[in-house]
DNA sequence: GTCTATATTTGGATAGAC
DNA sequence: GTCTATCCAAATATAGAC
């Protein structure tokens, strides 16, 4: 998997550039420079720029699945696993500060472009959503698991957007702490939560 | 203010198009079609596309200031005013679902483009941040007012991003309810909050 | 102030030699 | 599989007539 073929080189370089510069703003020349091949050589590997995007999205989907599987193995409890999710904000804080969230910014851009690969890109969000949802179900919150998953996903997105705009890593740490507290209070009140209309707090 | 000059027409059309399609994806032709003038005529009013962006940002800043002033007048208590902020998500939910948040998506795009007007665009965020901060101070939360302001701003951003990705207005309403609850619980516990290390919950 | 015509550049894509 | 040369379309920007 991911051998050092030219094909993979292109996808990897495009992946990075799409993240840092955005999809539309990244030209074939940019990718060609990064991979050190000529522009013409591209079309031996991909029919169009859209096809490169497609390949990038599918690589990201595969990597995300791998990461979630890993968290599933490492985390002994659902709390631990959800904490793994929350802590990617810490692990990636330097990049988030500079470029935002790779998932959120891609989906936002493709929405503006009204691009055909929107649905594929959104699967990245769905991957996290359903995984988190399953963890909350395991926590006994089966009635509002999806709401909790979406809530957490939204908070992560908001943190990434503002950390990027304000170039503020400290804010990431601040909010991660709040999310951890929120998670703890969510799990403590599992029993009574079944009867509450209010999924968080 | 905002007379029907060609200049203003251009700025208004660009404002809409930048929001719906993104800045880079919007061409002079797009704006020209909307305003119904020829492309060449642009350069009588603006020296470059960047200059149009600059004008758009400043119009948005002025409109935002006007809106915040209005909320200041209408809202009798700081809670009421903060609720006004939270409820723009409801008022604009149809557009947010389709195009995301106008502030967040612009700042994210300009960050990727590494555009010179990033700082100006970020002032839109700062406007909300300082205004919310002031409201929280009035609520007696002077030690953590800015944290609370940023927290609320982040949650709004996250809601907009996910509502856009999942094309889900219901999610907006769900999260607005949670934000209102959060605000209520924040204000109830004002006295003890002074001694808590934990600004929310 | 507005138009048409045009210059210039860039980006995506193709053809064909090696 | 990789390269050079080239085509085509679109986008920013300018010149100059009306």
How is this structure best summarized?
The structure is a homodimer of 201-residue chains. In chain A, 77% of the residues lie in helices and 0% in strands.
Strand content of chain A: under 5%
User: Which series of helices and strands of chain A comes N to C?
Assistant: HHHHHHHHHHH
Number of helices of chain A: 11
Using the coordinates above, name the CATH class of the largest domain in chain A. Answer: Mainly Alpha
Terminal Cα span of chain A: 44 Å
Provide the CATH architecture of the largest domain in chain A.
Answer: Orthogonal Bundle
- Give the overall average pLDDT of chain A: 94
> Could you describe the largest sheet of chain A, including whether it forms a barrel?
none
Q: CATH superfamily name of the largest domain in chain A?
A: Tetracycline Repressor, domain 2
Kindly describe this structure.
Two copies of one chain form a homodimer. Chain A is mostly helical and 201 residues long. In chain A, helix 1 (6-21) packs across helix 2 (28-35) and helix 9 packs antiparallel against helix 10. Chain A has two domains: 1-47, Orthogonal Bundle (Arc Repressor Mutant, subunit A), CATH 1.10.10.60; 56-189, Tetracycline Repressor, domain 2 (Orthogonal Bundle). The longest helix of chain A is centred in the first third of the chain and has 26 residues, at 49-74. Chain A contains eleven helices and no strands. The A-B interface holds A 20-22, 24-25, 99-100, 104-105, 107-109, 111-114, 122, 125, 147, 150-151, 153-159, 161-162, 164-166, 171, 174-175, 178, 181-182, 185, 198-201 and B 20-22, 24-25, 99-100, 104-105, 107-109, 111-114, 122, 125, 147, 150-151, 153-159, 161-162, 164-166, 171, 174-175, 178, 181-182, 185, 198-201.
